[in-house]
Specification:
Layout: H1 5-18, H2 25-42, H3 48-62, H4 69-93, H5 97-108, H6 121-130, H7 138-150, E1 153-157, H8 164-177, E2 182-187, H9 198-203, E3 211-214, H10 229-236, E4 240-244, H11 246-252, E5 260-264, H12 268-274, E6 281-285
Length: about 290
């Protein structure tokens, strides 16, 4: 999906805010002009995650990182691991484990430093507490189950640290329900905000559960023009794709792959597009989403 004009305006605003702490005005001006050049030359043809990846490359030439993302990722991986056993116990005791998993993997998608640059732990706790009461479309749920019953290859595209613990529960239960299903988990191929990489997958035990690979790029999403040949072949060769997070939606929507998208609406653009409240969940196969 090509970057929306709202996304481009948001990118510019965040880049300016992100460099305010630095004192060298000339360097900041040079940096912003390079950002504008990337957006002008590529904004009509590329997704938001792709643009941010290119801008990040420029940032690394100009400035030091002010946010310790490795520490943040470890914090939320451990936080969600502390919740894992209780949440999994609830899911297993629910009337429909797939439905319950969807509720929790969407709630976990809140752990995202992209839209706001920070997260509120009290909001995260509240989303997890009320996840069991969320509604899941019966039509979409039936469609997913029908597809999974016929599938042999599932590609699961992850998003952020911490929430991959909820992904792990979902994948574990999918493997139990569909023992013939081979699951490949695709994570980010390098540092991208607080998005999950292979190191995070190993930290939470996901690598012990399923085949895991990096997508070959430090991109906060899944854009087929940026990922490795291996990742693209696995995605295109899968029977079912489960795509977590807004970044994956922005990179894959319109690519004719027909994934199941699962995420929270965390910014104004998605709130408007789906007609939902902020932090409401989206679970839908692409061909069921109205343009």
């Amino acid at each position: 999906m090509h970057a929306n004009v709202s996304c481009i305006a948001c990118i510019i605003d965040k880049q300016e805010k992100g460099i305010r702490p630095f004192q060298d005005e000339e360097k900041k001006s040079e940096y912003i002009h390079e950002v504008l050049k990337i957006l002008y030359e590529n904004g009509r043809d590329h997704s938001c995650p792709w643009l941010l990846m290119k801008i990040d490359e420029v940032y690394n030439r100009y400035f030091e990182r002010l946010t310790d993302y490795p520490a943040i990722k470890h914090k939320y991986n451990q936080y969600m691991l502390s919740k894992e056993s209780v949440i999994e116990k609830y899911i297993r005791s629910s009337g429909d484990v797939t439905e319950a998993c969807i509720k929790y993997v969407c709630a976990g998608n809140y752990i995202d430093f992209g839209p706001t640059g920070s997260i509120d732990d009290s909001i995260l706790e509240g989303l997890l507490k009320k996840a069991a009461d969320e509604k899941v479309s019966e039509e979409e749920l039936a469609c997913l189950k029908a597809d999974l019953s016929q599938a042999r290859k599932l590609v699961y595209l992850t998003d952020n640290c911490g929430e991959i613990v909820m992904d792990k529960i979902f994948i574990r239960l999918l493997k139990e329900q569909y023992p013939e299903l081979h699951v490949t988990v695709i994570l980010r191929g390098g540092p991208a905000l607080n998005d999950a990489t292979l190191d995070d997958a190993a930290e939470v035990g996901l690598t012990e559960l399923a085949d895991c690979i990096g997508n070959g790029a430090p991109i906060a999403g899944t854009d087929l023009s940026a990922v490795s040949g291996e990742a693209e072949r696995l995605i295109r060769g899968s029977d079912v794709i489960i795509s977590k997070g807004q970044g994956n939606f922005e990179g894959l929507y319109g690519e004719k792959l027909n994934p199941y998208f699962l995420f929270l609406c965390k910014c104004d653009l998605f709130v408007r597009r789906f007609g939902l409240e902020r932090y409401a969940s989206v679970f839908a196969r692409e061909d069921h989403i109205k343009n």
